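Sharing a chain and its predicted structure for anyone who wants a worked example. Both blocks are below, sequence first, tokens second.
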Amino acid sequence: MGSKNKLKRFKENETFGNVIQPSREDAVAGNFNLKGRWHQDFFKNNNPLVLELGCGKGEYSVGLAERYPNKNFIGIDIKGARFWRGAKTAVEQGFKNVAFLRTQIELLEYFFAEGEVSEIWITFPDPQIKYKRTKHRMTNSEFLQRYKKILSADGVVNLKTDSEFMHGYTLGLLHGEGHEVIYANHNIYRNEGAPEVVTAIQTFYEKQYLELDKPITYIKFKIK
């Protein structure tokens, strides 16, 4: 994407009521006013709050918002030029139950209060196979504890990925640490019984993986 195009998208993001772009400094200083108040001040209802972490173009967030009007969705990514597509689609379609937050995943606790989130989706994250980069994996122990802080007592996490490595790594970690695996499948399009929501929404890249006959894996779990 050219820099002109990026600038245009950044500018347009600033005009969208569903895009929130706080500064890192404000958030870390505790000046993010929506923390603990997403229901009252932003969505204006008490519907469950669902996050998509590393939302990319925002297709999953928008797809979920369309299917579940009784839930609120927030797509989170540091790359605003990417989620511009999802934000624009949501504005054009008039979806009031989806928003996009531009920040880094490791700062989640500055934006959400304890127990404020009902569910988390992690869709097609970078598996980061190199050993030295384990600390950046979105399902490592450190990240799981971050998620636990903001999740409600019965909150769940969904991991959908094309990386069999990421699937195996996460499953091993979950079992090893004694978390509750509700559902796990290493090829959701080949096996019956996968939750309908997992196969009903497909991202741009997912469609490409399926054309290449690449298995798509899925895990649903609770952090203990």
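Comments welcome. The CA atoms of residues 41 and 47 lie 13 Å apart.
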